UniProtKB/TrEMBL annotation:
GO terms for cellular component: membrane. It comes from Bizionia algoritergicola. One of its GO terms (molecular function) is metal ion binding. Signal peptide: none annotated. This is Metallophosphoesterase. GO terms for biological process: lipid A biosynthetic process. It comes from the Bacteria.
Length: 409
């Protein structure tokens, strides 16, 4: 909430009040059907108690934000975020549906409308509430494996069948030290028996202390040919105010050392060359590179220096915006792996088609993209940030198998 001005926060609170005021107008049409005045007024009191309680909590948190410990701050912000979404969206839908029903009074008589219209409106409001509740309590850690086979004519034969597992955007602080949950994902990863494990950034929300206790889980990860990682925008400590540059640097070193302590090769604008039977494949990793307001720590040309003469290159770059800006048509990188977007943690699937509002911000936001024989894969993230749930956008483990072919598909 630090990134939002007090005016923005007050505007949000006003919007919450206006939506609740409109919802209460229609709620009364339902409670008026009740015979018990005690029950009726109890519902009214509870309704406004929640409304003013939520508004007060948001304002107090904004005013007290600087004095709250970072760990408690993360928990409070995510909790209020979840409460606001789970209240705001169902009420808006309730208002829209019941207003349309009363205006059109479609296919029912006035007498019937006294009961049917309010109940239909109530159902329309409760349905999204239950969907959001499912996203918060169930889908958020319902890990899904996305498997793909990618064919390349210039893939060295020694790497034909190479199996890559990509994970991204863990945001370990959001797990709140529930180690057993991530352990379930680690079991799924190891069952895939990967040759390589790639992590494409955002290990934490902001702080190195979020990593306490996680070494035991990470040391269960296993890959035949190695594990590699890059940093994401949240791994630099840029979303906090530090007492000094030294404190921020110490936090950064705590995060980078975590990778080294857990057998991950952290690529900071650098490359690693894998060699099998005198044939080579390059793993290139850049620091975070994003369009403003995200900072551009990444230096692709520096990262490519050691891999210049390697015919097949895989790039790890946290932000998918980097692919269209500096990779596509500008390099001979065959495959780029990114994360960052989380698929907005919300979307709708229609068969093989998927839609999310995040597509209006990011051209490449989830899944596989191909252009000019070059591929980009955007992982939907394994953890969460902000809204403590996932709606139609399950946390992802990506499994990509590379295949030698006569031509690219």
């Amino acid at each position: 909430m630090r990134s939002y001005s007090l005016f923005t926060i007050l505007s949000l609170c006003l919007a919450i009040f206006l939506v609740d005021f409109a919802a209460f107008y229609w709620l009364k049409s339902i409670t008026d059907l009740l015979d018990s005045n005690i029950l009726k007024y109890s519902i009214h009191i509870l309704f406004w108690f929640f409304t003013f309680g939520l508004i007060a909590a948001i304002i107090i948190l904004k005013l007290k934000l600087d004095s709250i410990t970072p760990k408690r701050k993360q928990l409070l912000i995510s909790s209020l975020y979840g409460l606001t979404i789970s209240s705001f969206i169902p009420k808006i839908i309730f208002i829209i549906v019941i207003s349309i029903l009363f205006v059109t009074n479609y296919a029912i008589t006035d007498k019937e409308s006294l009961l049917i219209i309010p109940l239909l409106g109530l159902f329309a409001g409760f349905l999204p509430f239950f969907v959001i509740a499912y996203g918060v309590f169930k889908a958020i850690y319902n890990f899904k494996i996305h498997e793909h086979i990618l064919s390349f004519s210039h893939l060295p034969e020694a790497f034909d069948g190479l199996k890559i597992v990509q994970i991204s955007d863990l945001h370990l602080g959001s797990f709140n030290h529930r180690f057993h949950i991530l352990d379930r994902a680690i079991v799924k990863i190891n069952q895939l028996q990967p040759d390589l494990i790639f992590f494409t950034g955002d290990l934490v929300n902001n702080y190195a202390w979020e990593l306490r206790g996680w070494k035991k889980s990470f040391r269960h990860l296993s890959a035949k040919k190695g594990m590699y990682a890059v940093l994401g925008n949240h791994d630099y400590g840029d979303y906090s105010v530090w007492e000094s540059a030294e404190a921020k640097q110490k936090n950064f070193e705590g995060i980078t050392n975590f990778f080294k302590d857990n057998n991950f090769k952290l690529l900071l604008n650098d490359s690693e060359i894998l060699e099998i039977d005198n044939q080579q494949l390059a793993i290139v990793g850049v620091e975070n590179w994003g369009n403003p307001p995200f900072k551009q720590y990444g230096d692709l040309q520096t990262a490519l220096f050691r891999a210049e003469n390697t015919p097949f290159k895989i790039l790890l770059s946290h932000d998918p915006s980097h692919w269209s800006e500096e990779v596509l048509h500008e390099t001979d990188i065959a495959l780029t792996l990114s994360g960052h977007t989380h698929g907005m943690q919300a979307g709708v699937s229609f068969g093989k088609k998927e839609w999310s509002p995040i597509k209006y911000k990011y051209k490449h936001w989830a899944g596989l993209y191909q252009e000019n024989g070059q591929y980009l894969y955007v992982n939907r993230g394994l953890g969460w940030m902000g809204f403590p749930g996932r709606l139609g956008m399950r946390p992802e483990i990506t499994c990509i198998t590379l295949q030698k072919s006569e031509k690219n598909y």
